[in-house]
Amino acid sequence: MTTFQEEEPLNLPGDVDLVTFGQRLRHLRRSRHLTLADLGERVGRAPSQLSLLENGRREPKLSLLRSLAAALEVPVEELLRKQPPSKRAQLEIALEEAQRDPLYRSLGLPRLKVGVRVPNEVFEHILALYEELRRSRTKPTASPEEARKANAQLRRKMHERGNYFGEIEQVAARTLDAVGYRSGALSQGTLMSLVTHFGFTLRYVRDLPLSVRCITDLRNNRIYLEREQLGMHTPRTILLQTLGHIALHHDVPRDFADFLRQRVEANYFAAAMLMPESTVVPYLQEAKAARELSVEDLADVFAVSYEMAAHRFTNMATHHLGLLVHFTKNDQSGTVYKAYANDGLIFPADEDGAIEGQRMCREWAGRRVFAAPDRFSVYYQYTDTPQGTYWCLSHIDPSHERDFAITLGVRYEDSRWFRGRETGNRAKSACPDGDCCQRPPVELAQRWEGMAWPSARAHSHVLSVLPTGAFPGVDDADVYNFLDKHSEQ
Fold first, then answer.
1. Rounded distance, CA 364 to CA 406, Å?
2. Nearest C-alpha neighbor of 345 from the set 233, 429, 444
3. Strand 336-341 to strand 388-397: parallel, antiparallel, or no bridges (unpaired)?
4. Which of 109, 300, 457, 479 has the fewest Cβ atoms within 10 Å of its own Cβ atom?
5. Which distant-in-sequence residues (6+ apart) come within 8 Å of 409 by Cβ?
6. 293-314 in b/e burial notation, b at 16+ Cβ within 10 A?
7. Interstrand relation of 214-217 and 201-204 (parallel, antiparallel or unpaired)
């Protein structure tokens, strides 16, 4: 018989929540009036090994998982459901996570063991005190260095998954089914049905604090929103991002990395609602078969911004179309605001691997588009790099603050699936070495080195830490005053 340690680990999309799995296993075992010894005898495992599973301290293995499901007479999927099996289990999981928090451990309290005789009210009181402790000890969210590291770590996770989050796709699909969505662009009526589905009402206002795009009143179940268009962040996009936090059961962020993860997940949810997987995948597959893939068409068909359409394309490209891609958002100076790649393209990065804030090569399409004769039409380009040749489409997405170039690119051999592949625009880049654009040509440098004294623009964000609070940059006093004012209306 294969030993417990030698079995193949479970290989399922998404992460298995070990604590929730253990709670479900314990709940199902007890509901069948089985002891650990009873269940261990049925599956050929020692009670101590099963205890480790129930306490979330060991990953389930595939053969054991199947044996447990058979012994408990449930499908394997029932054991792997991410929802806690009961309110009691939810409280126990929350307490377990709280006790793992370094802030909680800093109190020096002995570990609280969960017993069947401890009433739910005790857990609720402890968790409430813990949440208040977190709020009272809120510190600056992160230093710039910590923020860059968090961005780099998140981007690595996105790369590992091909920027595809199957669990969020499923949540979005179930939510759309619940309000009767069938196909096409998301209508205003469907959007209002979604607000009602989550138990909220929507109020448009004109006096939101400057530091926020939206406020959710959890006491009165109201969502406050302005009608102002903010580039990619249209009112309906902001609303769907807000509903995403609710649908994905987000809690107050523990730190900047948690805040960043939640923001990415909420953005993903919004895109999955506006461009549902069930609708967008057949559309893209048909376009690929016709060799007419186009971000601008995707934006038009689903009535979304060019940036969101390009972002959503990266979600679908690798998982459904077998295409490796890269994506960038940069301003006219070449400063990178967002970037993603799994096609081998190397972005400029600092020592922590952070891309945001770095300057893009001036030969890349995202910078050359600003000098194009028609700067607001889609610009196509082939770029020879040390990693190979890439084909890119780049488009300037204007906003009320500044213009940004949104670029989507693929390896040369995959350009055959896209409209614009016949372009004659071509450039050569030696980056990230830098000789092509980061340093001036030798003759030019010899003429002017030591004879120029430029006055640089001030970049105040480089000199300061990130704003304090769980939600970086949000003025809590303004938000609370706003809620006070509107709660009486």
1. 12
2. 429
3. unpaired
4. 457
5. 325, 326, 327, 343, 345, 365, 390, 391, 392, 393
6. bbbbebbebbebbbbbbbbbbb
7. unpaired
What is the rounded CA–CA span in Å between residue 147 and residue 141? 9
- How many helices, marked H, and strands, marked E, lie in the chain? 20, 9
DSSP-derived secondary structure for 40-66: HHHHT--HHHHHHHHTT-SPPBHHHHH
DSSP assignment, residue 413? G
User: CB neighbours of 260 closer than 8 A, spacing ≥ 6?
Assistant: 150, 151, 154
Tens of pLDDT along the chain (489 residues)? 333 333 344 444 345 677 778 888 888 888 888 999 999 999 999 888 898 888 777 888 888 888 999 999 988 888 887 777 777 777 877 787 788 777 777 788 888 877 777 888 888 888 888 877 776 665 545 566 777 787 888 888 888 889 999 999 999 999 999 999 888 888 889 999 999 999 999 999 888 887 788 889 888 889 998 876 554 567 889 999 999 999 998 887 877 888 889 999 999 999 999 999 999 999 999 999 999 999 999 999 998 999 999 999 999 999 999 999 999 999 988 889 889 999 999 988 877 778 888 888 889 999 999 999 888 899 999 999 989 999 999 999 876 567 899 999 999 999 999 999 999 999 999 887 655 666 666 777 777 777 666 665 544 444 344 455 556 556 666 676 677 777 766
Map residue 337 onto helix, strand or coil: strand
Query: What whole-number distance in Å separates Cα of residue 472 and Cα of residue 392?
Result: 33
CA distance 268 to 261: 11
Give CA–CA dist 252/101, Å, rounded: 14
Residue whose C-alpha is closest to residue 464's, from 477, 475, 473: 473
Place of tokens 């030993």: 3
Output the six-digit token pair for 19. 């604590």
Q: Is 287 helix (H, G, I), strand (E, B) or coil?
A: helix
| Contact indicator for 181, 274 with CB cutoff of 8 Å | no
Q: Residue 30 is encoded by which pair of tokens?
A: 């007890």
Pick the closest to residue 397 from 387, 386, 406 (CA basis): 406
Neighbours of 63 (CB within 10 A): 16
**Closest among 69, 86, 66 to 78, alpha carbons compared:** 69
- Looking at residue 464, what DSSP letter applies? S
SS3 state at 188: helix
The CA-atom distances, in angstroms, between 115 and each of 91, 112, 120, 123 are 12, 9, 11, 11
- The span from the CA of 4 to the CA of 14, in Å, is 23
